[in-house]
Amino acid sequence: MIRGTVVIERDICKGCELCIAACPQESLGLSSSININGYRFAELIQDNCTGCVNCALVCPDVAITVYRQPKSAIKKAV
Amino acid sequence: MQEEVLTNGYELVYKKPSTLTSKPFHYCPGCGHSVVHRLLMEVVEEKGIQESTIGVAPVGCSVFAYDYMDIDMQEAAHGRASAVATGVKRIHPDKYVFSYQGDGDLAAIGTAETIHTVNRGENILVVFINNAIYGMTGGQMAPTTLLKQVTSTTPYGRTHEQMGYPLRITELLAQLPGAYYVSRHAVHTVNAVRKLKKAIEKSFDYQKLNRGTCFIEVVSNCPSGWKMTPLESNKWLEENMFPSYPLGDIKVPKDK
Q1: CATH class for the region spanning B27-251
Q2: Of B99, B175, B200, B222, whose CB has the highest number of CB atoms within 10 Å?
Q3: Which residues of chain B does A11 touch, with a Cβ-Cβ cutoff of 8 Å?
Q4: Is B12 left (phi over 0), alpha (psi -120 to 50) or beta?
């Protein structure tokens, strides 16, 4: 399986939960702590992200940067 | 430091476009405005036309669009963004010009300007964000408000006897010969966002052809004005807005 990860800028996130609904892997969830604006922010709660970019496409605040395993690394694993 | 560890060996697949400024959006959580801002700027970045794009900002929630888009922008009086964009395009015919307007701006106070801009077939892109409400001023009824929809000025729901019917201005404009490409999109799901981006790409391409106005309506949400959470508002959007405002291309160019 392709592995990826997301980096969420927590001080920009407003906790709208749209990325959580868009994630097919259910890797995202709301934090239990709050950011500087008082919002609970989205964060990775499971290590099964595939880097599909869905969360970043629906994020209204452009807080998500997506990284994915390069194709060469997958070939090595096979 | 933490970022380096997290992304060790992984390649970047998606990041904020460089054509957006670093200022965080002031919009409410879950608002569709910032998605459209981002898509416009992604297209500008991918086409490499940051130097030759001029945007016109409206009055409404997106009045500060010029703070977020790192391109040349001009603020217009309420409803007159398409008229200002006309002037900009006529002075700079080689630039890409778009106006960005909401439904209170474009469909209420600026109806005359919008209709005549499209009727003249001005070579601009008009982006119309329709959330069926005046979001900025506290959720009052707009011309696009649905029948029976409760807003702060229609507490018992909009009735056609008193307030008339919802104005489907996109269908109205599609009949005008000056309109070249008219399309309606949404930003509530991943697929919808991808489709909207393609439509914006197409309309920037059509500007080179000098054939007429491109008009893109984006059916958007207003969680604060509708008094819902962002997820509820997207569901409400699908159930109530789409029957009145069906998505899809309304007028596509016949000639290639």
Answers
A1: alpha beta
A2: B99
A3: 24
A4: beta
